[in-house]
User: Fold these one by one.
Assistant:
Number 1:
Amino acid sequence: MLNYKIPFNKPYVSRRQIENIYSVISNRKFCGDGPFTKKCHSLLEDFYNSKVLLTTSCTHALEMTALLCDISPGDEVIMPSYTFVSTANAFVNFGAKIIFVDIDPHSMNIDHNLLNQAITKKTKAIVVVHYAGVSCEMDKITKIAKQNNIFLIEDAAQAYGSEFDGKKLGTFGDFGCISFHETKNIHCGEGGALIINNKEFFSLAEVIREKGTNRSQFFRGEVDKYRWISKGSSYLPSELNAAFLFEQLKKASIIEEKRLKLWNRYYKNLSDIDNISIHSVPKNKKHNGHMFYIKTKDLEERSKLIEFLERNHINTVFHYIPLHESKKCSFFYRFAGDDKFTTIESQRILRLPLYFDLKLQEVDYISRKIIEFYD
């Protein structure tokens, strides 16, 4: 047995990030849109080949999409129930009714086959969530959104660097939302980004992000004064966050390569266990090694496995409680069709430790303990 505990997550940090933060402190430029923010914007826009704005969180990026789509009371927004609460709250906060759709049990992503039956005259947007950094069926979903003339928003919180058919996730919809929370591959503690793929919203996105003013245009010398011209809020991250994030973005390919190596080791070690199922990734879906999860037979077995691994100094966690299980918030949503898989599959998922500093021998130890449990 190990004489130390393997945590579920350990955020990546490099010495250069500390130096960047010291540089911000020395220059005394702490507020948003400073030199490091601009450097991050440049890297991200080259990466996505689209307009990108840093935000304080992925939650705020989602809220910005609600403002950009002019979400109002009476509008309906379709999404999976198996997601983080921010995906729903971003639209509930502006009066939308959330329409939940069941998931595909193989990917834990929204089932595109059920979208058409959920669309009504009130539908304003579809929000897809790329669970574990693995793409939804974006070719089919993009087609459905265009046919019905509704907005398509990608909650790509877990999907930095992931692709579908060679195209980066976050660039299929009108908008894409990225998370740089410390639990993500690339992080700055708390942070996010909005990818704006629909060019007609470039200018408005800047205004919304700057508290509803044209302050960004003023700093570029495009207007002589800046004024309140729209709804908005303060969605700019601190320059300290951007300084930390900049170095992470520069090392993104190295971080992803290491995580994929760990992911593949888990897959190799555990793929022959009959008692569990593990997620495989189709060839047209490049993932980023964000998460490795297994599925147990049921909730009872998962609880026993968590306890067994904890006794062996391994910290594992389950994930989302489906949002439609919240009866206190039932007036915010309805479930379109049947919940065949969302609840039952959510009770089977167990996420294993996966982070940059995790060692291959630790992956092997975790794998051996899982095999021991089932033996």
Note: The chain has a mean pLDDT of 96.
Number 2:
Amino acid sequence: MPFMRSLGPGFIAQEDNASSHRSKWVKQYWEKSGIELMKWPPNSPDLSAIEPPWRHLKWKQGASGPITSKRKMTKVWKKNWKEMDMKLLQRFVYRIQGNTYTMGDSMLGGNDYKEGTSPPPLTLQEREKLADEIEDFL
């Protein structure tokens, strides 16, 4: 909370609608904090900018071997974050707009939205780099 308060007036916090974030205690905590909480649809990782980099960092962590201490975890995550390709981060954010439109167009009162819209295409070099990363992981 101190960090969020330091961001100044107009800051809006976001949590996904995981069951742990919807408990009555968490709701009371947010109400008492005085910080506005963004309304967010349940089960919507395709609308979040943090889910893909989070998944990518966890995936990269696995390539570093077992994490046996907080110190090692911090070192690995900082290294992997610094090495993350800016174009990859841009793709993670860019896909949200398309996912929002896709979800809105497909829902129209129904419940038939399928997660996982297609992001912008990769160049041949970017596809090869991604294939190499996947191969290294496997």
Note: Residues 86-107 form the longest helix (22 residues).
